[in-house]
Design brief:
- The protein is about 40% helix and about 20% strand.
- It has about 500 residues and is of the alpha/beta class.
- It starts with 19 loop residues before the first strand and ends in a 14-residue tail after the last strand.
- The structure holds nicotinamide-adenine-dinucleotide.
Length: about 500
């Protein structure tokens, strides 16, 4: 970064004022004081109060009433879809403002936060269309009945999201939950409390009846735990770390409440010798270092075939060194600051552990030098090699810009190493041999396989994971039905009197 700090058309006055959104009304939270700071320079965005116990209870009580209100409950799918279309338009009309708020809140580049805001709008549009066109089934009758399989709302849904891509992960839960006819209580993370409140403003302006959405930024052990434990919550949708996911799943199991978990990852990327190496290089850089590596699906374990290991790694290291680390508002920036000083310290600690276990840091491995970085949460894109697949850096999620490279000899070896990890989120394969790529895809236990591309998404394609990376699917029709209760109806079609009690037809 050179010269003056880039500016935006928006100012701090455009940030939400920090009041939380409880059942259609913005009000001061009753919980602890929290701060949102700009990761690029540590300057204050807002001091606000997170949600407190009473806020959670009020939101749940209002949600229960709203979901039973005939105005909402009796809407036909196309009528309910209309609310989602209006929210989609509101999001699309406010992309620049949302992007500014999210970049101030999380430090992500404006380019990225614009894309996330647009993806939130498309998510609402997609689920509106999916709702309008979703079919229920007449199942094959095995008696004198018509048998129907129908989908009905669950009731009140808790949606708990992390700080790394808030508006997109919020929309991914709130849109299908509302489409399915539920009320939703969204709990954003305390490190990124503001963008969810802007989302609430847009939803309120779209005219969604009060009570159907509350947005309660707050701590996991306070707001999150209270939501997970409340008997009124009929479904929990969680995105976050694996440890917290386990704790939530255990609590949900005690109440037999359905839960979906989108958790951590340590995704393998495999480069075969016949790959288009320019294409692979570009995809690997994007898949690892965009979002500054703060991405669950970051391709953080790179397996390169031994015949091209040295030459490809050399190119990768040079290209990584050339990445532009800088201010989130600078259009040239590729790697922006991390979310929080504590998170930078965590990332640095993983790199120290890798060094202690014999890893060679080929590039990065420190904060960048320079006055322009001094106040921000910057960490250089980092590549490590020289360790085996059992090293800590190969096993644990760093959730920052740190890639570890390993050589392999055969497809069988690389499949075994790819699967030898607790996580099962995603995998990338780079090769011109599609049959070989599909065979590797079948053999790896991950929710997504990208072939000659990486970190690409479609709202109409289900997303989810295996092993410690989670369970359940978001997006696609499955993502809508996940928020519905499936119910079977048997309707007599011949006016049959069941003979068992000896009663005859009148
Ligand atoms: P985190 O698990 O610490 O927090 C996630 C959310 O859960 C936050 O809102 C937090 O306040 C809340 N929470 C924490 N403890 C809780 C509790 N006991 N009860 C209820 N809620 C609680 O994760 P994070 O640091 O915010 O996010 C990073 C993690 O999220 C990484 O592991 C990343 O891989 C994962 N993630 C996964 C996906 C995916 O789709 N698989 C997407 C994005 C992020």
């Amino acid at each position: 970064m050179t010269g003056s700090v880039p500016v935006s058309d928006f100012t701090l006055d455009d940030l939400p004022d920090g009041r939380i959104f409880v059942a259609g009304t913005f009000r001061q939270g009753q919980g602890a004081e929290i701060e949102s700071r700009f990761p690029a320079d540590g300057s204050l965005n807002r001091v606000m109060r997170e949600a407190g116990e009473q806020d959670v209870d009020d939101a749940i009580a209002a949600a229960r009433l709203a979901v039973e209100d005939a105005h909402w409950r009796d809407l036909l799918p196309h009528q309910r879809a209309d609310y989602l279309y209006r929210i989609a338009r509101g999001l699309a009309d406010n992309v620049e403002r949302i992007a500014f708020i999210q970049s101030r809140d999380t430090g992500k580049t404006l380019k990225e936060t614009r894309a996330l805001a647009m993806s939130a709008a498309s998510t609402f549009r997609y689920f509106a269309a999916a709702l309008e066109t979703m079919e229920e089934a007449i199942t094959p009758a095995r008696g004198p009945w018509m048998t129907l399989s129908r989908f009905e709302p669950i009731g009140v849904v808790a949606a708990i999201t992390p700080w790394n891509s808030p508006i997109a992960s919020d929309a991914q839960k709130v849109a299908p939950a509302l489409a399915a006819g539920n009320a939703v209580i969204l709990k954003p993370a305390t490190w990124s409390p503001l963008v969810g409140l802007e989302f609430a403003r847009i939803v309120a302006e779209a005219g969604l009846p009060p009570g159907l959405l509350s947005v309660l930024p707050g701590g996991g052990h306070t707001v999150g735990d209270r939501l997970v434990s409340d008997p009124a919550i009929g479904r929990i949708s969680f995105t976050g770390g694996t440890k917290v996911g386990h704790a939530i799943a255990e609590k949900a199991a005690r109440r037999l409440v359905p839960v979906s978990l989108e958790l951590g990852g340590k995704s393998p990327t495999i480069v075969l010798p016949d790959a288009d190496l320019d294409q692979a290089l570009a995809g690997i850089l994007y898949g690892m270092f965009s979002s500054s590596g703060q991405s669950c699906i970051a391709g953080s374990r790179l397996f390169i075939h031994s015949s091209i290991y040295d030459s490809f790694l050399e190119r990768l290291v040079a290209a990584t060194r050339a990445l532009k680390v800088g201010h989130p508002f600078d259009p040239a920036t590729q790697v922006a600051p991390l979310i929080h000083p504590t998170h930078v310290a965590n990332v640095a600690r993983w790199v120290d552990i890798a060094r202690a276990e014999g890893g060679r840091v080929l590039v990065g491995g420190a904060a960048p030098d320079g006055a322009e970085y001094a106040q921000g949460n910057y960490y250089l894109p980092t590549i490590i090699d020289g360790v085996g697949n059992s090293a800590t850096i190969c096993r644990e999620e760093v959730f920052g810009p740190v890639l570890v490279a390993l050589p392999f000899e055969t497809d069988a070896d690389v499949i075994a190493m790819a699967n030898d990890n607790q996580y099962g989120l995603a995998c990338g394969v780079w090769t011109r041999d599609i049959v070989r790529a599909l065979a590797i895809g079948r053999a790896v236990t991950t929710g997504t396989v990208w072939i000659n591309t990486y970190k690409q998404f479609s709202i109409s394609t289900p997303f989810g994971a295996d092993k410690e990376s989670g369970m359940g699917r978001e997006k696609g029709l499955e993502g809508l039905r996940a928020y519905m209760r499936q119910k079977s109806y048997y309707i007599d079609t011949v006016h049959q009197v069941i003979p068992w009690a000896g009663i005859t037809a009148g």
